[in-house]
Amino acid sequence: MLSKTIAAALNSQVQMEAESSQAYLAMASWADIQPGLQGVCAFFYKQSDEERVHMLKLIAFINERGGFGVVPPLEQPILTFKSLRSAFSEFLKHELKVSNSINDIVHLALSEKDYATHNFLQWYVTEQMEEERLARVLNEKLELIGEDKSGLYLFDRDIMAYRGPE
Length: 166
Ligand code: OFO
What we know:
Number of strands: 0
Family: Belongs to the ferritin family. Prokaryotic subfamily.
Low-confidence stretches: none
Pfam families: Ferritin
Order of helices and strands: HHHHH
Enzyme class: oxidoreductase
CATH class: Mainly Alpha
Bound molecules: hydroxy diiron-OXO moiety
Number of helices: 5
GO cellular component, one term: cytoplasm
Shape: elongated
């Protein structure tokens, strides 16, 4: 059975995952109307779908452990970006924020001796390590590419491959 504190923390994580999904959906839609960014667009649609799955896993866990998974109201995310670089730097910033939040709940679960929640959250810890790595790699690549058009072309063409195997 979840304590009230843990249930509240997990529900605020539900909100964060839902906001991540919205944020990446907005990035996908923005990329969709930029010339030649079909790869980036597909990448963010996929990221958005994954964040929704993260949210659903949390809701299922909260309910299974005797809490109530609350579907949250959502803020409108950032809709437009001044460059590809700035969209990807938002992506990294967002992932770092999510990692911090997961770490806080892991800490809370340990301090309450809630080992079931602690165990459940390990999947998110691993996922965040991967997402942070991916966001960092993509930011580094964009840094290298700068304004080089053929570099950007290849970045867009190859971006799905950086996600690694499903
Ligand atoms: Fe939910 O995985 Fe990143 O944010």
